[in-house]
Structures are given as C-alpha cells and as structure tokens.
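Cross-posted from the bioinformatics board.
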Amino acid sequence: MLIDNKFLKNLLKIRNRKGIFFIILAFLIVAIFYIAPTPHGLTHNGQVMIGILIMAAILWITEAIPLAVTGLLIMIIQPMLHVMSPNDVFSSFGNQAIFFLIGAFILAGAIEKNPRFFTLGIMTTCAFLSFIMPGHGVAALFLPIIASILIAMKIIPKQSNFGKISMLSVAFGCSIGSLGTLIGGARNIYAVGVLSDIGINITFFDWMKYSMPVVLIALPLVWLVLQFSFPIEIKDISVARKEIKKQVTEQGKMSKNEFIVLIILIITILLWIFFSSNQYFGLAVIAILGCVLLFLTGVVNWKDVEKRVPWGIILLYGGAITLGIGIYETGAGTWMADQIFIMAGVNIYLVILMMIVLTVLLTNVMSNIGAVAILLPIGIAVAPVAGISPLLSSMIIALSGGLAFMFIISTPGNAITYSSGYFSIRDLFKAGIFANIICIVIVYLVALLYWIGVLGLHNM
Amino acid sequence: MFKNVLIPISSEFYNKHVLERGFSLAETFKSKINLIYIIEEKTLNQTDRLTISYRTPYEIAETKKEIIREQKLAADSIIFEDAEYFFKNKNISFTSKIHQGEFSRVIKNELEKKDYDLVLMGFNKECVLNYRLFDEVKIPIWVVNKNDGKSILAVCSNLAPNIKVPDLSLKLSKVFNLELNMIYVIDMEDSVQVDEKIKRSDKKTEKDLMFIAESFIQKMKEKGINVILLKGSFEKEVINATEKYNPKLVIIGREQKKKGLLGLPVKNFKRKMVEKCNYSILYVN
C-alpha cells in the first residue's frame, strides 16, 4: 500500500532507502526525547538538546542529508521545539568564528589559484602549506604535481612503495599540517568559536603555541611510520628532480598578482599573530581585512569567491556552534558529564586519553568536521567535572579530530590522493593505523607534559 | 581459438603480467590484441562524493579534470609504452584506446561492438571495482595471476554443465604442451545438479550426485582423461587442488553456486574464487 503512494515512490527515487531510514530514525529520537519524562537533574530543554545532539550525530555520521543541511536543521529545530529563541540561535551564527572562516576561505582561494609552492619535499611542504590553507586544498594542489613526477619516473600505481609513500605523504602531511594554525582546518576555527562564546578567547598565536609541538613531533614520526610500512625500492630519483625542475621552469617567474597575494597573505598572518587579541581587531576582522585588500588590489574578484568558497561548510559550522551553545546553556552537557563520571569515575589521565581515542576513532569513520562538532560540546561539559579546563578539552578534541589517517572517507585529503591510484585502501589502513597510534601517544604526552605541565592549560 | 583478445586495464590497477600473457597468447594463436584503458568512474565519483561538503563544484570539477589528465598521461607513458614493447615491436597486431566509465560496463559495451573471443585481465581485490563482468559476460575470461606453474587444472562439478571445460582444457594442454589434471567436485554445501541449459535441479542426495559424477568420470576416461573425484566445499577443494598441482592455469566452467555453509546464500562466487586462488583462472562462461 505504502509503495503505491506516488510521493513515497518519488522520495525513494531521490534518496536511497538507507538514507530515509536514518532520517526517520534521527527525527524519531528527537520526538522521543521531547515527550519522554525528564530524569532528575536535567531540564526538559536540556533533554531535548541531547535528542538534537543525537539527531545531528546520526545525520552527520550517515550523511543521509548533506552535512550543511544538518547544520541548518539544528538551527531551526531549536526554536521550533522552544529550546532556544530564534534570536539566540541566529545570534550564535554571528559568532566571529564564522566570519573568520569566510575570510580564511577567500584568502585560501587566492592562493589556490596558482600551484607554486611545492619544491621543498612532499610531506613537509604539504604540512607547511596546510598552515595557510585547508588541508584538502593542498592535497588537490599536490595531486597532479606528484602524479606527474611518478609518471615521469614510470612508477606503476599500487605496485611501487615509492609511489605509495609519495601519495600518502601528501595525505598525511596535509592532515598533520592542518592542526598547526587556525586556518589549517575549519574545525580549529569552530573550537575557537565555541570557546569564545563561553568567554575563553584564543588568539592566532595562542593556537600555534598550543598546536605546533604536536605538528613538529608528529611529522617526522609519521614519516618514519611510512618508511617502515613501505620500504622504498628505488635508489635513483634523478628523474624526479628533472621533472620538478621542468615544472618549476614551466611555472616561470612569480607574476605581479601572485606577488600581491603573497604580500597580503604575509600581512594578514602577521596581523593575526600580533593583533588577534586586540578587542577592536580580532581574528574575523583581520581575515575580512585581508579579503578586502585582495579585492581592492584586484587580484581576486567575486567570481573567484563563488568558485572557491564552500558556503555549505559555513552553514554547517553555524549549526554546529548553535548546537554547542544549546548543549552548554540548557545544562545538557553538564548532566551528560555527570552521568559519564558516575558510571566511570573521575580520573583525569583516563579522561584525557579517552577523549583523544574517541575523537580519533570517530574522525576516522566520519567527516572530521562532524566528529568535532559532536564531541566538542560534550568535551566542554565534561571538562569542569573531570577537573580540567574547557580550553584543554577543546584543544584535545580539535587536534585529535584532524588525525584521520585510516580510511578514504576519513578526510577529503585521503579521498583526493587515493584517486591517483598509487595506493590501495589496504595500504592506507596499514600505514594509517600505526600513524594514528603514534599520534594518539603524541597528543597524550603533549597534553600532559606541555599543555598541563608547562602551560598550565588545565586551570585556564 | 582466441583470435580477438580484449585486454581491459583499469586506472585502479595495472598488472604487467597481463600484457606478457597477451603476448604469449597472440604468438600462439595469432591473435589480435585490443587494449582498452578504463578511467574508473567509480573512483572519480567516490572522490566527488567524499569531498562535496568541503569543496565547491568548481574545485571538484577542476580536481576531476586533473585526475583524468594524469590518468591519461599514465596510460600513454606507462601502459601503452609497455604494450608497444610487447606487441608492436614484435609485429603483433594491436590497437589501444582510452575509455572513461565503470569497468564492467565499459567491457560489456565493448563486447557488444566487436566480436571478441577472450577477455584477458588482471585482478586486485583492494580496488573499488565490483567485477560484475565475471557473472555477466558470455565469453571466456582469463584472469592473470603472477604464479606460473607447469600444468592445467580443469575443474568440473555438480554445479556446472561440464561441456566446454573438458574440450577446452584438452585443447589448451596440447597447444601449450602442459600436463592436464582434471578434478570433479561434488559440492556438499549446494547439493544440486546443474544441467546443460544451466538450470539448477532440486536438492539431490549424495548418492545421486555420486552416480552422476561417476558417469562423467567414466565418459572422460573414454576420452583418455583421468579425473579425480573430490567431495566438500567447491571453493576449498579447488584451492587445495591448485596447491597440489601448481597449475599454470585453472579452467572453471559455468558454476552456479547459490548456497554456502549452512545453506546461506553465496554472493560474488566467481570473484571470491579469484580472490582466494593464487593462480591464473580461465572462466569458460
């Protein structure tokens, strides 16, 4: 009977049945949380927010609807269920993190217009370039460059360890590099946005101060993991050098526009480093200032912005920030944290380790944006109960959220480099699992020895 | 036999042994080799799908264009260059072209356009390819593996009509001057008998299956072929036999296995055989 319904038939044509199942499940969970009796210590609004969090988790993990649409859904469902007023929800969307994100994407778009910065060694170059533009953008930039070199060397896809390491270096280098600065990964900006809403302000330089040890330790160690996983079989790389020289020659000298982009980028980064804590500047104002300079000098036009700025992510983060605020303000986060600790007991070392492991596991099986958006509100709520600061838990979750090495679905950088054909799904898993274990240890030790031991982040 | 050979190579996987085997077949049978390089659409679509939330349609299209350009370059500079070495330089008639699409669909389209009598290909289980063609293509498919033995192992069973395999294996053993070993497997997990029209009977008793097997063995004996009778799971018995006989080629017919252990349905049976077997397999479809 149901299948005869024209509307349902059309719906089944548009979406697969699995997708429809998860959409229905997600809404059903919100409905259950809305009508179920409220347990002691939790408000009704808090209970509904937990339902919305689970709904968001289901939709982000299964991607039954686009990630950005889930972000929009989170925004409208809160006022619809009387949890937060529309004004409160949409004012969270005006968080400076959103405008910082927009500015960062426009700046990255200006760099992506010319593939130049590639001659310093694959993994390090990718990592360093990921400091100033999104990791997946760097992966897309490096894919044709590395592929050309490998083809010139007659390296056969999937059969050569040199080919595997070269492409995996791009993927892993981008992931590690994206932890280093606020613009490396949008999840970093999201963490800063949520923290600023609860009164903790992080500057561009602060972030680098916290994250750089992880990047600098992880880079050589993950590189070693690759060397051990796939011993290189070739000795002569003179053909590769020749190809690199050829590509540099083809690129020619730096054009006037490229030079202007470089100067504006340097100015913006310096302003971020020295003035992002200034109350009249801030991260977003500087980012937008950089964009305005790009427009004023004529090196970027609005068409470039339309081509290069993924507005969907901005909507997603808007939704994710309102989710975080909702969880925090309704007391749902504190209630969840209490329940976790009543069951598991409070042990600060165990809590930190669990946060890292859980985030790494989740970020590997779903988009890292979604993983951080789900876990960060919980992490912030857990922090005071566990005796650590929200800043420390946010750093742990945001950085661990970038450690997606094991699967193609984990991060766009993995998917883009996989399309080269030079490594298999198994190769990625083999190297990725060891890289993840090493990085879990690194983040754990950095958290205990540097963030807590040296910087005292647990009390901030 | 094998006058017109199609060699499909996916952008997902390239095995040089396929060209080597193509060369030896072309020399033996005076075959014409048709090489197609397939830029795998599934990989391209997968990359699009996984990056759609992070990147703009323009950036996605740009990356796709780059991937296609690089894969065409890889085909020209690595695969077609190898093919020139194996075929053109040795005066073996050969053509090459590049297609974009889904591996199995491209091959099926190509088979509709031209009369081929063999598909010669490599296999890699770690690819996104689904290898539907094993079940959907009507001409023989030779899946090349690097292990190279010194005999031919012909496989017959209650799950296939067993008409083409005996004749073909006899011919190939003579042409290649290889010893022929033939086995007949009674699959105890799927105890049906498949007839000449590839129809599966109802479940049969072990005694009935034994009777049919013995009459087949007798028939082969009259042709001068000694057949070893085996009982158990088709896959396991065949794999064990390959380890025992170390064959250059395993010839398998139109096996219609539908049930596995505890009567559970079997999916992608032929693909799983290729995955488990370390030797080249010729599916006589």
